[in-house]
Amino acid sequence: MQKSKEQELDRNGLEKQCLEVRRLIVKSVYEAGSGHPGGSLSGVELLTTLFENFLKFDPKNPKSDSRDYFILSKGHCAPLLYSIMAFKGYFPVEELKTLRKLGSRLQGHPDALKLPGIEVSTGSLGQGFGVAAGIALSLKIDKKVNKVYALLGDGELQEGTVWETAMAASHFKLDNFCAVIDSNKFQIDGSVETVMGVEPIKQKFESFGWECVQINGHDLKQVDEAYQAFLSHKSGKPFLIVADTLKGKGVSFMENTEKFHGKAPSPEEFEKAMIELGEKAL
Q1: Does a structural domain hold residue 282?
Q2: What are the residues whose beta carbons fall under 8 Å from the beta carbon of 148, sequence distance 6 or more?
Q3: pLDDT digits over 48-80, tens only?
């Protein structure tokens, strides 16, 4: 079907947001001298689309009763979440320069005690997924309509607690819960397949009783349609989006490698990255 001019403009605007979020990620990690750019860059379209078009939130009232809940279970990718939060007005963009600095609200992993808008402190892999399911269960018990979203990495699926949560979410029919797997195929020690294979992800979650879709996690149309599918599904099951992504997406020398899983770019690499992202290094 041919896209309307309004839809085309919306898509163009979202693409520009994704590009700016990538710039902010690279800048903040470079300023910090440490961090996790690879997995942050791979999740940009997934999280930018969620915050722009689907998640209900209010930066001026982060604890609003009407809000939806987002949990960054892959907490080491905090630069991704912080960049989007800054873009959405939770705090000034300039504060991103304080990432990982002493006294900063922007800790290396999200800290709910320091930064309003962070629902749960995460970093221990698998933990955020379980807490997200618990929140979803609480909302169901209280008969509330709020939705819960969690972003995980594919390497995170090597944690046993993930599968306990998958079983529980299905048992309790948490159809208000949407988990997203940023499947970029790499973790700190190498490829996920080499360290401990987790495929086939979609079929495994389906066997646990989830409704699942698999998409290209960098295709904005597919990402949008996947979130729409979650909001419209009537199966009574928790919902999973398996998003095939590229580690380090947008910066050529960070792509499809574990080398920048937890490493900041050098001054020369930073300059090259910013040129590739369409902006001269500062």
Answers
A1: no
A2: 68, 69, 70, 71, 132, 133, 135, 136, 139, 174, 176, 177, 178
A3: 999 999 999 999 999 999 999 999 999 999 999
Split into its structural domains, the chain has a count of: 1
Strands 239-244 and 211-216: parallel
Q: pLDDT of 228-280, one tens digit each?
A: 999 999 999 999 999 999 999 999 999 999 999 999 999 999 999 999 999 76
CATH, residue 233: 3.40.50.970
Contact 132, 139 (CB under 8 A): no
- Domain containing 248 equals 5-276
d(CA 125, CA 250): 25
Q: Tell how far CA 136 is from the center of its chain.
A: 18
Q: Is residue 281 part of a domain?
A: no
- In degrees and rounded to multiples of 5, residue 33 shows phi and psi of 80, 5
Query: Could you tell me whether strands 186-187 and 190-191 are parallel, antiparallel, or unpaired per DSSP bridges?
Result: antiparallel
Structure tokens given for 36: 């996790």
